[in-house]
Amino acid sequence: MLVPLYEAVYERLDVGAGTRLLGLGCGSGLALLMAAARGATVCGVDTDERRLDHARDRLTAVGAPGGPALPARLGLGGPESPCVQEAAAESAFTVVTAFEPLSALGAAGPATSVSALAAAAARTERGGAVVLAGWGPPERCATSGVLRVGDRLADPMDSPGHHREVPPPVRWRPCGRDDLEELAALAGLRPDGSGRVACPFGYADMDSAVRGLLSTGLFDAAEQVTDPIQVRKEITEALHPHQRADGTVWMPNVFRYLICRV
């Protein structure tokens, strides 16, 4: 669903041969795959081992059968991961992407995002780009109403008596007008341009939409607090206004990105 965002950023930064890219919170690796296909050398880290395994499979499957895998380093964790240190020791990164800095990086709070971005910037060449991205205004993001279901159902996790996992599950949160700029300032980064990109979420049918949204991990906290069947039921109800006559589900969204310089 975020392919238009990745394409817009890579086109603007002219990502290609000679680019050394670090993806923070790389998830299942689609953004890394697109950068590698443009000729970039890529390194990615994520805190979700299952999604990281999927990224590894996705990157090594390119060129099969028998073809060489795309050059990529993947590691569990953040910028302190051994794979990041090894890649940076060879040569500093030229581009760092944090396409979900307020969720994937900030599961334990904003301080986690600031620390991760600062650590990544320290391994980036002077003048290199650090890209932050987040949801656009809620009124222009149809999916935000559905994601609020997970946030509402997960509220008991914030109660004083609730036992938290370490690390806590990722929680969705809207991106305020100046959130990306404030995060960049705290991490010592200098803004150097921004943009907005339309990223509609489209699904073939209701079941595909529910499964697709659950796969993001943004409903994991809700499933831990309440019955997973109840979570699925409430997601389905929230999606009904977005189901079209032919059964497909379509939700227009806008994402915003901020380009910073080290």
From TrEMBL:
Superkingdom to which the source organism belongs: Bacteria
Chain ranges of the Methyltransferase type domain: 22-63
Example GO molecular function: S-adenosylmethionine-dependent methyltransferase activity
Family matches, as InterPro entries: Methyltransf_11 (IPR013216), SAM-dependent_MTases_sf (IPR029063)
Pfam families documented for this protein: Methyltransf_11
Protein name as catalogued: Methyltransferase type 11 domain-containing protein
Higher taxonomy: Bacteria, Bacillati, Actinomycetota, Actinomycetes, Kitasatosporales
